[in-house]
Each structure stands twice: as C-alpha cells, then as structure tokens.
Design goal:
Layout (H helix, E strand, L loop, with lengths): L6 E4 L3 E8 L5 E9 L5 E8 L4 E4 L5 E2 L4 E8 L6 E14 L10 E16 L2 H7 L2 E4 L2 E3 L3 E7 L4 E10 L5 E10 L7 E13 L2 E13 L1
Parallel strand pairs: 2-9, 12-16
Antiparallel strand pairs: 1-3, 3-7, 4-6, 4-8, 5-7, 8-9, 10-11, 11-13, 13-14, 15-16
Length: about 220
C-alpha cells in the first residue's frame, strides 16, 4: 500500500559545505522536514551513505500533518580527500491505530533524503597514507600491486589505480587496469608486470604495477 502522505525537506535538500580542510574537524548542518500529508507519520529509521557521516533525529517521533522535525547530518572529514557527496536518509511510515502498541505498528515505509557535498583538502599525513608508493618527488601511487585471485582463460578483471600528482596541486588521476587471460598466458601463479602511462610535467611517463594471478 502506498502512502498518500509525504515528508518533505523545507528549503534546500542538498547543502554544499564548499572547500573544507581535514583539520577543520566534523562539519554539521541541520535540515527541517515537514509532514505535508493528511495523516500522521512516524520517523522510523535513519541511515547514511558512508560511515564518515552520521544522521541524528528524534527516532519514533510522530509527526501530525504540518508538523516539523529537525534532522542533523554530521560529516567527519578525517581520512577523506577530494570531492564528497554524502546522503542521509530517513524511513517513515503511517502507523496503525493500535493504542496498545507504543508508536503503533509501522505501515508501508517511504524515504526522504538530505545531502552534504563539498571538497575536502587532506592533510599531508593522510595523503601519504592514501598514496604510500613513491615514484618520484612529483608522483605517488595508491598501490603498485593487485591480487586478482583465480582466473581462467577468456576471463577478464578490472582494477583501479590512482596517481597523486604533487606538482599539480595534488591532482588525483584514476586509471583503469584491465587484465585478460588469453591462450598465451601461462598457467599457474603469475606475477605480471603491467605498464601504465601517465604524464608528469607534460611528459609521458611509464609506471609499472604487479598483477598477482593464479591462472587455471
């Protein structure tokens, strides 16, 4: 059964935090939701798109028509870097009219969401943890080794490696690595050197990563 009542976010459902520093610590914004339906609804459950973000509201709160409630999203930038898009969602439902049950029994649930966006500038310590492989003073890698597990002839797998360009305001460049087992690939445990091309200061540079794979 679909509910006729609707919980809406008053004002902006997406709020930009702009550019923040990791050292700035937890950022939070409060949203207001309103019951625009004709029947009461109950705020049942909340969840977020990532563990870096928490959602806070009065759980099991009953909202009569035109009632409002405050919802706070808290974003922790620790260990985060680059652009972020974090969503907080509340599930709500029209309760059954059972006076013996606190809050009533939930009916069909609907959802309303709020979003925090922005760009996080990480600390030097975080960058070094995220990009531990040093290629040069100007280039670092997220990893230089991938475990592809067991693969068979004709099978392919993709992995992603990210470059950190230190001479370009810490620009991040993600490259897709695609490996295919063909009839020339030896069987058994293989450690395959896979070249990746990038550009450093406008010049092409080759970087090699290792693919560990057991070919059956």
């Amino acid at each position: 059964m679909l509910l006729a009542d609707t919980l809406i976010v008053m004002g902006m459902a997406t709020v930009s935090l702009g550019t923040i520093q990791e050292a700035d610590g937890i950022q939070q914004r409060t949203f207001v939701v309103r019951n625009d339906g004709s029947k009461a609804v109950c705020l049942r459950q909340g969840y977020t798109s990532c563990g870096c973000t928490q959602i806070h509201f009065a759980q099991d709160k009953m909202l009569q028509p035109r009632d409002t409630a405050h919802v706070t999203l808290r974003f922790n930038p620790r260990g985060k870097g680059g652009e972020f898009h974090e969503v907080g969602t509340i599930e709500y439902a029209q309760p059954h009219s059972n006076p013996r049950q606190k809050g009533g029994e939930p009916g069909a649930r609907k959802r309303v969401s709020m979003t925090l966006t922005g760009t996080c500038i990480t600390s030097e310590e975080t960058l070094l943890r995220q990009f531990p492989v040093r290629i040069s003073d100007h280039l670092r890698l997220s990893t230089d080794r991938f475990d592809l597990g067991v693969m068979r002839q004709g099978e392919s797998k993709e992995r992603h490696v990210t470059f950190l360009h230190r001479d370009e305001q810490d620009r991040k460049e993600t490259v897709v690595i695609r490996f295919i087992v063909d009839d020339k690939t030896p069987r058994g445990l293989q450690h395959i050197a896979h070249p990746i091309a990038t550009k450093v200061k406008g010049k092409k540079q080759m970087v090699t990563v290792t693919l560990d794979v057991l070919v059956k």
